[in-house]
Design goal:
The protein is an alpha/beta fold. 46% of the residues lie in helices and 6% in strands. Helix 3 packs parallel to helix 4, helix 12 packs across helix 13 and helix 13 packs across helix 15. It binds flavin-adenine dinucleotide. The site of flavin-adenine dinucleotide has 29 residues, from helix 8, helix 10, helix 13 and helix 15.
Length: 432
């Protein structure tokens, strides 16, 4: 009997080390794929921000175009729609007599609601195969159950480093050409998604281009071609330029780069070029990424609540004028302003910048942190639900920071922007 598998792509937009694809190719004689630009992702949220602004939308468009070409070469057609997955996936299953649906397992409320509805709309006889594929350490391999994930990162990291190992990379084999069909759907433009066109700001920290090929190229450049990886720990708190940090986050966020791929590449680099504190620190940061995913797995929708995972009540402010000043880079703090302008004009901000502007928002101005997080969600090119909400909780005193610190923004500026290079770049009014 001919078996047809459908891979429903969401935040796993790659062909390398992609478990759903590997399984689908192994278990079926024909594989097809679908991606939906979900219209709800381009609407306004409850705070009035468009959920996905032009920066991430453009990156996503480029990612899907690349994926479609790559899948074509594997004889897997990728059908692309601007529509609800609940409708499209269910239709494909019915029309194409799909026997199994493969997808990455998600657990955050909005994603689960959608996948549950899709599942309800398809026949019980169709196999539903969901797999965790976004982690560095697979949930089955960590030395603790989800309810025992520690509150403190260091405890989590040390246990994982000691007792867990990272899985090897999975490779997909090409499907037979005779099963090839042509996809007649087109990847949308920003305009199709109701968004304005995008012109890259010349001051950008990185000229991001979406798609697995660009992600893998960045990995190649950052490690092998420039060997900046050897200096990562010394430069990672930088603010200006392409190479102070890896910029992997944008590709990691939509799954066009696998964290395991980065890990194995770093290990190879360590054996062939150099093994030092910097190469270790890259993995260390990827473990932070995993930690926030596990925190969200453990605490569910509490990560979106004002009291956070600590159930801590503070007297939060929601003054619209003060929030708008923060967004527009018009606060009393030039360092905050420079960072906020960078975000507004490029969809990017360094880690050092994010920590400062978030601390200033939630701790100094005591504004409802969820509004700051929602603004980041709208603008960031690398928005990732777990990293964004996990970090905002952390900085706002309702998450995993055991020390509950408030950043001294002026001191931070003196330390990390010694010659005002970054602030001058963004605050010189002649540039506007
Ligand atoms: P590098 O310094 O090169 O680090 C390598 C990788 O490690 C990153 O790509 C990222 O995957 C991971 N990493 C590094 N720092 C962190 C961290 N603090 N938390 C989780 N993972 C980390 N990161 C996102 O990917 N998406 C978000 O939506 C996001 N929102 C944030 C919001 C706030 C308030 C803060 C303080 C941090 C946020 N971060 C987020 C984490 C961090 O700022 C970015 O991952 C990092 O700046 C991305 O740049 P890079 O890839 O050059 O990082």
């Amino acid at each position: 009997m001919t078996k047809t598998g459908l891979v429903w792509f969401r935040n796993d937009l790659r062909i390398h080390d992609q478990i759903s694809l590997v399984k689908a190719a192994k278990e079926n004689s024909f594989v097809m794929a679908v991606y939906c630009f979900d219209p709800r992702h381009f609407e306004k949220d409850c705070f009035g921000f468009i959920k996905t602004e032009k920066y991430r939308a453009q990156f996503l468009i480029e990612t899907i175009s690349t994926l479609q070409q790559e899948l074509d070469e594997l004889n897997i057609p990728l059908f692309v729609h601007i529509d609800l997955p609940e409708k499209i996936v269910a239709e494909y299953v019915k029309i194409h007599n799909i026997t199994s649906v493969y997808l990455q397992k998600e657990w955050t409320s909005e994603e689960v609601k959608v996948s549950n509805t899709v599942k309800q709309r398809i026949a019980d006889t169709v196999n539903w195969i969901e797999t965790y594929d976004q982690f560095l350490f697979h949930p089955e391999d960590i030395p603790m159950t989800i309810d025992k994930i520690p509150q403190v990162f260091t405890v989590f990291r040390k246990k994982c480093e000691k007792y867990a190992s990272i899985r090897k990379l999975e490779t997909i084999s090409k499907m037979p050409e005779k099963n090839r069909v042509t996809h007649l759907t087109k990847v949308p433009t920003l305009q199709d998604l109701g968004l304005p066109s995008l012109q890259q700001d010349t001051r950008t920290a990185f000229p991001f281009k979406g798609g697995e090929k660009s992600g893998l190229q960045r990995l190649q450049d950052y490690a092998w071609n420039t060997q900046k990886l050897s200096y990562y720990k010394k430069t990672r708190n930088g603010l200006v330029g392409t190479d102070y940090s890896s910029k992997f986050s944008a590709w990691l966020a939509n799954g066009s780069l696998s964290p395991r791929m980065i890990y194995h590449e770093v290990k190879k680099y360590e054996s062939e070029i150099i093994k030092n504190q910097s190469t270790y620190w890259m993995i260390f940061e990827l473990i932070w990424r995993d930690f926030f995913k596990y925190i969200s797995l453990k605490h569910g929708s509490n990560i979106f609540k004002l009291e956070g995972i600590l159930h801590q009540t503070y007297d939060w402010n929601t003054d619209e004028t003060i929030i708008q000043q923060w967004i527009d880079g018009k606060t009393a703090q030039p360092f905050v302003n420079a960072n906020m302008l960078e975000l507004k004009h490029t969809g990017w901000m360094s880690n050092r910048g994010r920590q400062n502007v978030a601390s200033y928002f939630a701790k100094t101005l005591q504004l409802d942190w969820r509004i700051g997080a929602a603004y980041f969600e709208s603008l960031l090119i690398d928005y990732d639900v777990h990293s964004n909400y996990g970090n905002w909780l952390y900085v706002s005193g309702v998450g995993n920071d055991p020390r509950n610190r408030t950043f001294n923004v002026q001191l931070q500026a003196k330390r990390y922007d010694v010659n005002n290079k970054f602030q001058n770049l963004w605050l010189q009014t002649s540039l506007f």
